[in-house]
Each structure stands twice: as structure tokens, then as C-alpha cells.
Amino acid sequence: MTACLLWFRRDLRLTDNPALIAALERGTPVIPVYVHDPASEDPWAPGAASRSWLHHSLTALAEDLARRGSRLVVRSGPALQTLRALIGETSAGAVAWNRLHEPAIAARDARIEAALASDGIETSSHNAALWSEPGQIATGSGGPYRVFTPFWRALAARLPDAPVSPAPERIPGPRQWPAGIAVETLALRPSIAWDQGFYDPWQPGEAGAYRRLRRFLDEDLRGYGDARDRPADDGCSRLSPHLHFGEIGPRQVLQAVRRAQAGGDLPEHDAEHFLRELGWREFAHHLLHHFPQTPDQPLNAAFAAMPWRRDRDHAADLQAWQRGRTGIPIVDAGMRELWASGWMHNRVRMIVASLLTKNLLIPWQQGARWFWDTLVDADLASNTLGWQWVAGCGADAAPYFRIFNPVLQSQKFDAGGRYIRRWVPELAHLPDKAVHAPWTMRDAAPRDYPAPIVDLAASRQRALDAFARMREDG
Predict the structure, then answer these.
(1) SS3 for 107-165, per residue?
(2) Among the options 127, 194, 346, 405, which is catalytic?
(3) 346 is an active site residue
(4) SS3 at position 355
(5) Needs which cofactor (predicted)?
(6) Residue 72, CB-side half-sphere exposure with 13 Å CA sphere
(7) Roughly what angle, to the nearest 10 degrees, separates helices 329-341 and 364-374?
């Protein structure tokens, strides 16, 4: 039998990799390949932070393959053309890959599958990214869920319980390998060292993902239900970039959590709370599959009439938000954390998004684009769900008229101001009472920190008035 191309995409691991298992089961040489084809993902080609992570993840995968007597063949160009070239060079008779569900990628993959089949090439695609793929869970009427809680009930009832497949000790390769290019040739890292602070808490690659999971289970899962809302504490799993790039799979995480539960010393509500959060990731992919227009368009069509700001100060306010110079300490702390680390605490993501869309009345799509370019865990499904949820125009959205008060949120979840002081050092000397809203105390705000660019009370009322006009126009 002829060789099989194993087409890696965002499944950059050897453990519990269904496409790898399928390729090995053929009993023929396996040729791992990675095809860099960002143009096929337009208009949502990976952003700068994602590309930086991808550089390190591909390097780690190549090293893992080398330890098993294999190698990663890296090519750049249109995926179908590149795969056909590799098939011609190697006489491969099959291609195996794991499915992705972003609209542009799914459409591209369908074209590739049909084209290769017409060439007489055996193809197989598999699920490595989700517990249950879109289409496997439906409402009683057969349609997609638009509310999370019933979706989670349906998903939780069918969580996978099959054992996780270990990484193979050896991967048989061909007698003669096709040529590839170095990962560095892809120029994924930024031209300036903007990403130098990204990797203190992480090590991209499968080994780093597993270590991150073990640390979370051993140190942070107990008490997760409360700690995950406090941005100054390391109470989140921080598995999101590892899951996005497929360095670890959700079945592996589920199995590890269930084993921790079986140990008997883990509060049930902490484990279930964490699994429920992973359920939101599944829900996001479910929604994106059924509503592929939502990265750019509101799921709630009434929001097409939302009177977003179009005044001349719009761009200046957006830039102040992006740079962490709004004068609202918790917001500025979050935006600076994002720029410096490629990540932001989930509670703070909601706070900064609410300020942008509600208080500043800047369209949610502009915030989503900024996150897309600056988050190492930028995921089209989750990013879309999160921004539409806060803006009030998506599935299971918060009431559209709900507006986070960033001062109250800061006082509640960062009471001692530790998170603010870390990321906004200009305010480090302020007493706890002043650090959340320095403008409210006479002579408290330092001269090198800006005054608020928006009045929170007045802008809240402006947003409520805008929602009222939207409903009238709709």
C-alpha cells in the first residue's frame, strides 16, 4: 500500500489524535505535513499573536515527531495545490486530517475532499477538536440551540467516555522524504519583539499543554468556582491557547478531570463548573457552524439598527481603549495585560468589552478584531460568542440593556487592587479606596494617568437611549 499524508492543521499533538491513528492503522508509511495557507481563511486569517504561538507550536511538534523517527514536512501555498504536489512527489494514496469548523476552512476542506476523491485519492477526516461536533446535538424540533443551558444539558448527557489514545512510540516514514521548508521561513513571529512577554506562563506544544493541565488540576481546580472571577489570582486553567491549537484535546481534559474527581478529594461543584466552561467552547463552535455570518453580523437581526457612534472622536476613543488609556483603571489594566501577555482574564474581557460597546457605543466588531489580532487564544467561535454576548446581540446574550459598571466590578473582583496595581503602575501608590476610581478623590489621580474619557453614568444612559431607539426602529 502507498503512503498516507497526515495533514496537520490545529491538531498539533500526537496523543489522542484520530487522524494520526487512522494513518497508522493503514500500515503504510506516514508523512506528516503542515501546509501554511492563511489566504484560505480570509477574512479571518490568524492574527499576530496567534501566528507567534503557531511558530513555537510547530517547532515543538517537529521535535516530537523527530523523537519518534519521523519529521514534519512544512510547505507554504494553497492547500489543494500543495497536497497534490506532495502526492505527486511521494506517490501517496491517502490523506488524513482532523476537521475544523470555521466557515471558510470548512468550505475549503469540502472542496479539497471532493477534488482528491476525483483524483482517486483516499481521504478521511476525523473529530479531534470537540466533544460533540455541530449537527450532533439539536433541539427537540431538530434545530440548533441558541441558549446555553439546554445545550449544556444535552451535551453533558453524551460526554465521551472512550479511553484516550496514547502517542505512538514510533511513526513509520517513507524511504525518501519530500523536501520541506524551515518553520522560520513562514515568518510567523513579529518583526519586533512584541511577543517577548507571552511565554512566561506557557510553553507552546503538547508537553507544555499537558504540564499546564496537571498544574491546574493539582493547584487550581479546587476552589475554581470562585477563584476564576478574581483577575489578580491565577485561578483560570489558561488552557485556551493549547486547546485552540490542538496541543491538547477536550477528551484528554475531560478524562483528567474525571480522574481527579474519582480521587474523592475534589469538590464536585468545582469540577462541574470547569467542565461547564468548556461547554461554552463547544456551544461557540455549534453556533458558528449554524450561523456562519456571525463573526461580522449580529445574530439578533434587530441590532442591525443599533445607532453606533460615528462622531469624529470615535477613532480617538477606540485607540485609547486599545492602548489602556481610558482612565478607567480596571479597563486599562486589562488592555495592558492583553498587549503585554497576549491574554486577558475572562472577567476582565467582559468588563472591557462592555465599556467599548455600551459606554463608548463603538461597534462590537471593532473590539472583536482587536482581540483577534492580540490574543494568543484567539478563536473565531469563542471570540464571536463572547463579543456578541456582551454587546447583547448574540445567542444566550446578557440582557441587551445590562451594562457592566467597571468600578463596581473592580471593587467586587479586585477588592485590594492587586490586578490594577500590577498592570497600571501609575496607580500603585494609591489607597484601596482610590485605586478603582481615582477621579472621585481629590488630588488622588497622578498626573501621568489620564482622566476618564467617558462619564460612566451619562454614557450608561446614552446607551439605554440608543437601545430604545433601536427597538423603535426595529
Answers:
(1) HHHHHHHHHHHHCCCEEEEECCCCCCCCCCCCCCCCCCCCCHHHHHHHHHCCCCCCCCC
(2) 346
(3) yes
(4) helix
(5) FAD; (6R)-5,10-methylene-5,6,7,8-tetrahydrofolate
(6) 25
(7) 40
Say if residues 454 and 317 touch (Cβ distance below 8 Å). yes
**CA-based torsion, 41, 46, 52, 53: positive or negative:** negative
How much of the chain exceeds pLDDT 90, in percent? 80
Q: Give the list of residues 6+ apart from residue 140 with CB closer than 8 angstroms, or none.
A: none
Residue range(s) of every CATH 3.40.50.620 domain in the chain: 4-129
Q: Is 151 known to sit in a ligand binding site? A: no
pLDDT at 26: 95
Per annotation, catalytic residue among 53, 372, 387, 389: 387
User: Residue 36: beta bridge partners?
Assistant: 76
Q: Which grid cell is 348?
A: 476582565
Residue among 95, 94, 115, 131 at smallest CA distance from 9: 95
Residue 343 a catalytic site member: no
**Could you tell me where in the chain the CATH 1.25.40.80 domains are found?**
130-162+206-290
Q: Look at residue 209 and give its three-state secondary structure.
A: helix
CB < 8 Å & 24+ apart, contacts of 220-224: 221/257, 221/260, 221/266, 221/270, 221/271, 221/274, 222/266, 222/267, 222/270, 223/267, 223/270, 224/270, 224/273, 224/274
- In the chain, residues under CATH classification 1.10.579.10 are 301-473
Check if the beta carbon of residue 282 is closer than 8 Å to that of residue 132: yes
* Model confidence band, residue 365 (pLDDT cutoffs 50, 70, 90): very high
What are residue 33's DSSP bridge partners? 7, 73
34 is in an annotated binding site: no
Amino acid at 244: H
Q: How far apart are CA 264 and CA 424, in angstroms?
A: 41
Edge-to-edge strands, sheet with 94-98: 73-76, 30-36, 4-8, 94-98, 122-126
Which CATH code fits 130-162+206-290?
1.25.40.80
- Mean confidence (pLDDT) of the chain: 93
Q: Please identify which of the residues 44, 152, 339, 364 carries the catalytic annotation.
A: 364
4-129: CATH number: 3.40.50.620
Q: Over the Cα atoms of the chain, what is R_g?
A: 24
Give the number of other Cβ atoms within 10 Å of residue 155's Cβ.
Answer: 23
301: which DSSP letter? G
pLDDT of 398 reads 60
Determine if residue 291 is labeled as part of a ligand binding site: no
Q: Is the peptide bond between 32 and the residue preceding it cis, with omega within 30 degrees of 0?
A: no
Q: The dihedral of CA 309, 315, 317, 323: what is its sign?
A: positive
Point out the catalytic residue in the list 177, 194, 280, 439: 280
Say which CATH superfamily domain 301-473 falls into. DNA Cyclobutane Dipyrimidine Photolyase, subunit A, domain 3 (1.10.579.10)
